[in-house]
Amino acid sequence: MITIYTLDGDRLVSHIAQAGDPAPDNAVWIDLLNPTHEEDVQTESWTKASIPTKEDMIEIEESSRFYADNGSQYLTASILHSTENKHHSIAPITFILTGPMLVTVRYSEPKAFALYISRVSKAGNGLINVKCSGVTILLGIIEAVTDRIADILEGVAGDIDHNSFAIFRRSEKDRPMTTKNFRDSLTRIGGQGAFLSKIRESIAGVSRLLVYMTAITDQNTYKKETRAWIKSLERDTQSLSTYVDFLSNKITFLLDTVVGLISIEQNAIIKIFSVAAVAFMPPTLVASIYGMNFHFMPELDKVWGYPMALGVMIASAVIPLLIFKKKGWL
């Protein structure tokens, strides 16, 4: 699908391009969402810029994601997005600056794009003016992406705090954590750690894109406000990267804590079995002695023989337990 955005005062107006349409007038942004081969060819005829395929965008090396070709600047970054099953993933999006126009090629639908389009479609949005260009739109999209990542990180931080509370703030009235509780905690914390790695990768891609933007804006005499905007976005991505590192450290700490608690619970169980084995050893010894089939065993003929044997077995079990308790081993 090809969506063309044109300037209308201080907002963008969109319309869907059809096959065979002529080159759009006053277009500042052409958005290709899951384009077909025919749509790629049609866009290339309008912009004179080569449109990369999905395979090209995926296979491109990290060091070759930013380049110039035939007067156009190509920038590819991995952007976080939600999949159909509500999981988060990352997918490459290519931004092509060709003259005053921006062309985006994407095979995913990040929420940041929808939020940006919703905002710039309204009058008085503060982002669009009559001098708007492809660079302005590109930086606006990147700003929406960083804002979206910041919102997601707030949710992740809340989930981490919830898990931390469940682990460290258990009162004496709460039931001890079971194997299922430990398994669920490890699954949740591990999932959050994997999610943070995707966020870190997305932030790194955006950060590299901004570094390249700084280079091309220095070469081409862009307005001072544009360069200042890029610097501001670089600081934002740096702050997000630092915050992701902080959350990753908390994730690592929680994982170590849960693993430590599991070890403590395992040691406690082994301790119980060990104490039980030691406690039953003396009674077993006494019972074994009186279970021997000797003809001469005086206690067998006495009335008090059986109670005495029981008493010796009980005492031999209780006395070691009392000694263990006094020494603090229990």
UniProtKB/TrEMBL annotation:
<feature type="transmembrane region" description="Helical">
    <location>
        <begin position="304"/>
        <end position="324"/>
    </location>
</feature>
<dbReference type="InterPro" id="IPR045863">
    <property type="entry name" value="CorA_TM1_TM2"/>
</dbReference>
<keyword id="KW-0472">Membrane</keyword>
<comment type="function">
    <text>Mediates influx of magnesium ions.</text>
</comment>
<comment type="similarity">
    <text>Belongs to the CorA metal ion transporter (MIT) (TC 1.A.35) family.</text>
</comment>
<dbReference type="Pfam" id="PF01544">
    <property type="entry name" value="CorA"/>
</dbReference>
<feature type="transmembrane region" description="Helical">
    <location>
        <begin position="272"/>
        <end position="292"/>
    </location>
</feature>
<keyword id="KW-1133">Transmembrane helix</keyword>
<dbReference type="InterPro" id="IPR045861">
    <property type="entry name" value="CorA_cytoplasmic_dom"/>
</dbReference>
<keyword id="KW-1003">Cell membrane</keyword>
<keyword id="KW-0813">Transport</keyword>
<dbReference type="InterPro" id="IPR002523">
    <property type="entry name" value="MgTranspt_CorA/ZnTranspt_ZntB"/>
</dbReference>
<keyword id="KW-0997">Cell inner membrane</keyword>
<dbReference type="InterPro" id="IPR004488">
    <property type="entry name" value="Mg/Co-transport_prot_CorA"/>
</dbReference>
<keyword id="KW-0406">Ion transport</keyword>
<keyword id="KW-0460">Magnesium</keyword>
<protein>
    <recommendedName>
        <fullName>Magnesium transport protein CorA</fullName>
    </recommendedName>
</protein>
<dbReference type="InterPro" id="IPR050829">
    <property type="entry name" value="CorA_MIT"/>
</dbReference>
<keyword id="KW-0812">Transmembrane</keyword>
